[in-house]
Structures are given as C-alpha cells and as structure tokens.
Design a protein that fits this description.
Elements: E1 14-18, E2 21-28, E3 35-39, H1 50-58, E4 62-66, H2 83-96, E5 102-107, H3 109-120, E6 125-131, H4 140-156, H5 159-169, H6 172-177, H7 179-191, H8 194-205, H9 211-215, E7 221-226, H10 234-243, E8 247-252, H11 259-262, H12 264-276
Parallel strand pairs: 3-4, 3-5, 5-6, 6-7, 7-8
Antiparallel strand pairs: 1-2, 2-4
Length: 283
C-alpha cells in the first residue's frame, strides 16, 4: 500500500487516516449545513465534481467529495477492492467529520458505490443521486471483461486505455466544442494508479444487484443521465427511475457519460432543483 501523490488541482485538499489508508477529500460549505457526499467514478478523482461545489454550497449544502482508495490523492491498495470497502471508507470519513447522515450521490461506478453505501448504511442516507449508472450485477461476460481490463492496465498503464475511451466518456460534440473538458477527463484517467484502477475493476466485477434495494428506497432520489451516454444509456436511467418510489429524472441533452462536466450549468440547475425541492426535507 502506498499513498498517491497529492493532485495539483485542489488547494482545498484535506486528509484523514481511515481504515488503514490516507484518504484525501474536499470539504466545502458551512459546517453546520446538511451534507452532500459526492462519489467520483472510474477512473477519475474528486476533481470531477469541481463544477458542482459552488452550486451545492449556494443551495445550502456542505459538500464532501473524497478520492476513493486507489484514486487521486488517496492511498493505493493493490489486489481487489470490493464495493463494501469503498462504502466502509465513506462511512469512516463521515464519522471523522462528525456527520451522521447525508444526501449521497455518485456517477457511474460512484453511483454503484452510492447504492452499496445505501445497502449497508441506509439509516445514513437522506437522499440518493444516481448519475450515469446502472444497478444490475455484472454479467458473466462483464466479469471477464473487467478482469481482463484490470490485467491490461497493470501491464500497460492508463494512457492507451484513456485514449481509447475518451470519446465514450465525453460526447464527441463536447470534445470538439470544449476541448478543455476532454483534457480534464484525460488528465484524471492518465494520472490514476493502474494498481488502484485494477483493484476497483476486480471488485466492481463482483458487485451485487441493487434493483430490489432501489425498489424499497424511500428517500427522495434524483436520477440524471447524458442523452448521448453509450455506457449507461437513457433507458438505464429510466429503469432506475421506475424502480425508485420517490425519484425525479433529468436527461442532459447532448452530454455523454460526464454530464456534470460537459454541461455544468444544466446539471447544476437540476441539482439545485433537487436539493431545494425533493431533498429539502433532508435539512
């Protein structure tokens, strides 16, 4: 186990020793405000939430955005990182900060980890945000793919993989119109530890099915997806929206897998509407 170098983008970084790892995180807003916990996807880091920090704070939230173990400035633990380990780290971080409960949200793998957190710590979840994600367990073919990709990343590093998937992470139209967004996403992917990414991929391959969990999740939920997301298309978001008893659905037109970065104004407007509307009772 070794700590990753602190990323250069975030002057607000704080660290805490939790569950045997050094966890880097951002903590913004009034310390007495209700908390929004944001979980990044793979293979990214907490800087993917930078456009949302000010909007959520303006909506009256304290925002906590950690780097997951193996990513960003948090320690790398080789091997297999199961979703229960990610959820345990998040619970420990909330304990460290003296936070009993929060609105919990994540994108892609981060959304699946949010569901795992809800499975293990339902009493700590005041609201649920699921962005560009899907609740079903991995298929046999998917398990093979994720484990093979883990092997490849350990052998080759992140650069080739990042170049191959950038136009799936970010819509091609966004890459053409806003190359700085693609540059940010590429930087996150290329700076991720192959060992950390591989460990998460192996754990992700063994994730449980969360469909039944969603059907009995009573907290207000917000489901959001990019209209041009090929990894988790709109039909996936519509499925989750139907499963959740109390949810709203937003489709960000023109966005791919990273609508919060591709169309931050539209994403933030919908996020604010959720925080000040359905999730307002969680204050």
């Amino acid at each position: 186990m070794s700590p990753s170098p602190a990323p250069p983008y975030d002057h607000r970084m704080a660290t805490a020793s939790l569950n045997g790892v050094s966890v880097s995180y951002t903590d913004e807003g009034d310390r007495s405000a209700p908390v929004l916990l944001l979980i990044h996807g793979h293979p990214f880091d907490r800087s993917m939430w930078e456009p949302q920090l000010a909007a959520a704070v303006a909506a009256g939230r304290r925002v906590v955005a950690p780097d997951l173990r193996g990513y960003g400035g948090t320690s790398v633990v080789p091997g297999v990182t199961g979703f229960e380990a990610f959820a345990a780290d998040l619970a420990a971080l909330l304990d460290h900060l003296g936070v009993a409960s929060a609105v919990v949200g994540g994108l892609s793998m981060g959304g699946q980890i949010a569901m795992e957190f809800c499975r293990l710590h339902a009493d700590r979840v005041q609201g649920l945000i699921l962005a560009d994600t899907f609740p079903r367990a991995e298929t046999p073919e998917g398990k093979v793919f994720r484990n093979n990709l883990a092997d490849r990343l350990l052998k080759e590093g992140m650069d080739g993989y990042a170049a191959e998937v950038i136009d799936k992470m970010v819509a091609p139209a966004t890459i053409a119109a806003r190359p700085e967004v693609a540059a940010h996403v590429l930087r996150m992917m290329r700076s991720t530890s192959p060992e950390g990414a591989a460990a998460a991929l192996r754990g992700r391959a063994e994730r449980p099915d969360y469909c039944e969990l969603l059907s009995r999740t009573a907290v207000p939920a917000w489901v959001v997806v990019g209209s041009d997301d090929t990894y988790t298309p709109v039909s996936d978001a519509e499925f989750m929206h139907r499963q959740l008893p109390h949810s709203t659905l937003t489709v960000i037109e023109g966005a791919g897998h990273m609508p919060n970065l591709e169309y931050p104004a539209e994403f933030n407007a919908a996020l604010t509407a959720y925080l000040e509307g359905p999730a307002a009772s969680t204050r």
